[in-house]
Amino acid sequence: MGEMRIVIAGGHGNIARTLTQELVRKGHAVTGLIRNEAHGADLMVDGATPVVVDLEQASADEVARVLTGADVAVFAAGAGANSGDARKMTVDFGGSVLLADAAEAAGVPRFVQISSIGADLVRDGAVPAGMDEGFVAYLTAKLAAEDDLKRRPLDWTIVRPGSLTDDPATGSVRLDTTEERGSIPRADVAAVLAELIGTGAAARETLHLISGSTPVTDAVAALA
């Protein structure tokens, strides 16, 4: 595909910044949505255009104005590990709903959502034995966001990475529609997202992603 315009919510996150650098390197235009104006300088270094939008306060109309003319919306925002349960619902769930509402209103065809391995473990209010309360709340918000997205007429792709690490990228992954436990460097998650965006592969698919033995380009090509 030729040059695209991609809008990333949660633009200052580790995965989002690496994804931005990768997309810019490939000739795409990236707009990063950030809550903290001070993060704008980092995004400009990455080659993105920063836009300050608080997904907990903004209206769908406000976000749709930023999304107008975009080819892809990426939901990479999150309340973070130290946030309370309520903020996980307003950011990890509510922020995704807002971005998807705005994408539909602005006519953005493609929506890529970063979710999490294990989201199905909390379906129907299940609480897995020994799981930390905060992680249950996080997975509950992620699952709700997935279920909301699946009802929409967008070309959505949901990516559920395994446990995230800050290790250097390996360039090789296991990307599949079936779940397997494992971990993955954030940089490899970003590489897979960039490839999914660039190729348009895996529309209306939920993908599970951990480290593996298949080069990223081959792993994505195998989904076509």
Number of H/I helices? 7
Could you give the count of β-strands?
A: 11
Q: Tell me the radius of gyration.
A: 16 Å
Q: State the CATH class.
A: Alpha Beta
CATH architecture classification: 3-Layer(aba) Sandwich
Distance between the termini: 15 Å
In terms of structural class, how would the helical and strand content be classed? alpha/beta
CATH fold category name: Rossmann fold
> What profile does the largest beta sheet have?
9 strands, mixed
**Global morphology:** globular
| Full CATH superfamily name | NAD(P)-binding Rossmann-like Domain
Helix content: 25-40%
Largest sheet, order of strands side by side? 3-2-1-4-5-6-10-8-11
Enumerate the spans where pLDDT stays under 50 for 5 or more consecutive residues.
Answer: none
Strand proportion: 15-25%
Instruction: Please give the domain count.
Output: 1
Q: What order do the SSEs take from the amino end to the carboxyl end, as H and E?
A: EHEHEHEHEHEEEEHEEH
Structural description of this entry:
The chain is α/β, with parallel strands linked by helices. It has one domain (5-221): Rossmann fold. It is 39% helix and 23% strand. The chain has helices spanning 14-25, 40-46, 60-67, 85-106, 133-150, 186-199, 216-221; strands spanning 5-9, 29-34, 49-52, 72-75, 110-114, 155-161, 163-165, 172-176, 183-185, 205-211, 214-215. The strands form two sheets. It has a nine-stranded mixed β-sheet with strand order 3-2-1-4-5-6-10-8-11, with helices on both faces. Strands 7-9 form a two-stranded parallel ribbon. Helix 5 (133-150) links the parallel strand 5 and strand 6 (155-161). Helix 1 crosses helix 6 (186-199), helix 3 crosses helix 4 and helix 4 (85-106) runs parallel beside helix 5. The protein is globular, with a radius of gyration of 16 Å.
